[in-house]
Amino acid sequence: xxxxxxxxxxxxxxxxxxMLSDLKAxxxxxxPTNFWSSLLAQVITNIRQFGIESFRKEDVRTHFxxxxxxxxxxxxxxxxxxxxxxxxxxxxxxxxxxxxSESKVGNPTQHYLFGKNWYSRSMLNYLRGLTxxxxxxxxxxxxxVLEIGGGYxxxxxxxxxxxxxxxxxxxxxxxxxAYIATRYLxxxxxxxxxxxxxxxxxxxxxxxxxxxxxxKSAVLMPWQIPCLRGKVDLFVNFFSFQEMExxxxxxxxxxxxxxxxxxxxxxxxxxxxxxAEKPGKVGVIKQTTREDYIRFFPNYECLAIDSKIFGxxxxxxxxxxxxxxxKSR
Length: 329
Description:
- By secondary structure, the chain is of the alpha/beta class.
- The chain has one domain (4-326): Vaccinia Virus protein VP39 (Rossmann fold).
- The chain is 35% helix and 18% strand.
- The chain has 10 helices and 13 strands.
- The strands form 3 sheets. Strands 3, 4, 5, 7, 9, 10, 11, 12 and 13 form a 9-stranded mixed sheet that branches.
């Protein structure tokens, strides 16, 4: 039974419908590629059924919510390992991360209390990545953060809970994930602090300066990235580029470069996303690799790569975290 928040009469429900309707009319390069096309119907159905109230439960197949895998014998031990890496590596500089505790919006099943703070796998993934960033560059100048494929908004939660007055977070994603991210950030920080798609869908220009003046976060659709004007300080992508084919990633990279971030923080599978058995099956038609990232961001130099500590090495899964810095001219 759909919860009240997601009922067809609710104004919030209409936002997702508008997003999905506009998605159909968007240029092909901004529409879901094979990986997400194969999952989209199920994700939409589950969001309509469980909504913002329960989308993070382990048995709700929303796919964009990371969970510790069932073949791992003890979820808690895996989460503790991630927490220990974060705790040992973190530095007391901006963004300050040690006090952050994740919200329980979405009724998370895998949620762990370490010290006084709550963490999920999504939160711990980002915290480990950010500590790696802090180890390799001076993060004191970072204020504006742009992410493509932000899941349910965890990175925005991290930065805004680190220092609400300091940071501005912009997420670009396809619906229905973008819908959940919008509602999640609004639930956690209040509706007035997150700019939603209904207020920007007709804009030919979207000024980052104006977003920062009036909001703490914004959720935009992929086809709006050419409308962005202004500079950001950090660009982040965790895995979602590898759920797309190289030509799609290259197009996004072109517009990210126009925002002139000082740093890039990227997480990817070392061997690329798995190939689909055939179109329509889960997987990519052509893999995006580390070499593609380097080629698509020619104005950046790769400063550091790690898989053993801040990434993940398991028998069938190997990921790495990469930090890039914009080249001086």
